[in-house]
Amino acid sequence: MRSRTAGMWWGMAIEAPDPPVLAAFYSALLGWPIGHEEPGTSILQGPGGATFMVLQQADGYRAPVWPPVEGEQRPMMHLDFQVGDLESAVEEARALGAREAEAQFQPNVRVMIDPAGHPFCLCLDQD
Question: Which domains does the chain have, with CATH numbers?
Fold first, then answer.
């Protein structure tokens, strides 16, 4: 990025029907603290202070469908997380409130669904 400056931060904003609930899920999953909360918004602070994840209130929220189905809300993006042990990462995500997607396409990737219905992938580190 041409306009990048020293100390620049980056992040993503994710719509949710209940931002504090989704923030608590991702905080526990990633080990990122909740750095700020206000009505309709929760912000997770990533390692080193340069990354963040905003969970923001979405009135009329419709959870995406995975895999995509004609006429339903499509996933517009998803998060990928590299893990060292796929099965234990799946179990940890389940214990925190995620569920495993019915459709799975790769043996080294597990598609999970977060508590708000967003798909995310746990990807086995194969190095």
Answer: 1-61 (3.30.720.120), 62-127 (3.10.180.10)
